[in-house]
């Protein structure tokens, strides 16, 4: 039996209570043809804060991957950590920054994504070292 929306939210609530994680701005649970998906947006907008928040989440999840996605309009880039909560529920935690020609995702076309090593997030979390 697949997880219900209540199961997903309960798993997220338990995870948030167990770990000291950055504040979230929003949480979305979407039912699609292939099941439920959970995404959570960080409540910060500064690149070093987003990178730090994503690293904090990465430390609490299993099967972690990270990515950068330039939105279809091309005006911002979302950095994400995707992983599983202890109950096996997949969650995407993300934060967005304005697109700049010399910033994160500068080589991405609109609506394109790429895998980002955790080492890049560590680099971005260090103030004064945010250009790639």
What does this structure look like?
There is one protein chain. This protein has 132 residues and is α+β, with helices and mostly antiparallel strands. It has one domain (5-124). Helix content is 25%, strand content 36%. The chain has helices spanning 5-18, 47-58, 118-124, and strands spanning 24-32, 35-42, 62-70, 76-84, 90-98, 113-115. It has a 6-stranded mixed sheet, with helices on one face. Helix 2 packs across helix 3. The model has no long low-confidence stretch (mean pLDDT 89).
Beta strand count = 6
Stretches where pLDDT is under 50 for at least 5 consecutive residues are: none
Please tally the helical runs, counting DSSP H or I stretches of 4 or more residues: 3
Strand order of the largest sheet: 1-2-5-4-3-6
Total number of domains:
1
Question: Mind summarizing the main beta sheet?
Answer: 6 strands, mixed
Question: First CA to last CA: what distance?
Answer: 44 Å
User: Which value, in Å, is the CA radius of gyration?
Assistant: 15 Å
Give the integer mean of the pLDDT values: 89
- The helix/strand class is alpha+beta
Envelope shape? globular
Residue share in helix? 25-40%
What proportion strand?
Answer: 35-45%
Q: What is the H-and-E element order?
A: HEEHEEEEH
């Amino acid at each position: 039996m697949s997880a219900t929306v209540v199961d997903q939210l309960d798993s997220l609530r338990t995870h948030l209570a167990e770990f000291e994680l950055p504040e979230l701005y929003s949480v979305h649970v979407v039912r699609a043809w292939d099941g439920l998906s959970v995404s959570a947006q960080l409540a910060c907008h500064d690149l070093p804060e987003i990178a730090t928040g994503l690293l904090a989440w990465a430390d609490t999840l299993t099967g972690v991957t990270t990515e950068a996605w330039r939105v279809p309009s091309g005006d911002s880039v979302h950095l994400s950590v995707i992983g599983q909560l202890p109950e096996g529920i997949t969650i995407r935690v993300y934060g967005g920054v304005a697109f700049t020609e010399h910033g994160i995702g500068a080589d991405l076309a609109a609506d394109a994504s790429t895998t980002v090593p955790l080492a890049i997030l560590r680099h971005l979390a260090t103030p004064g070292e945010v250009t790639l």
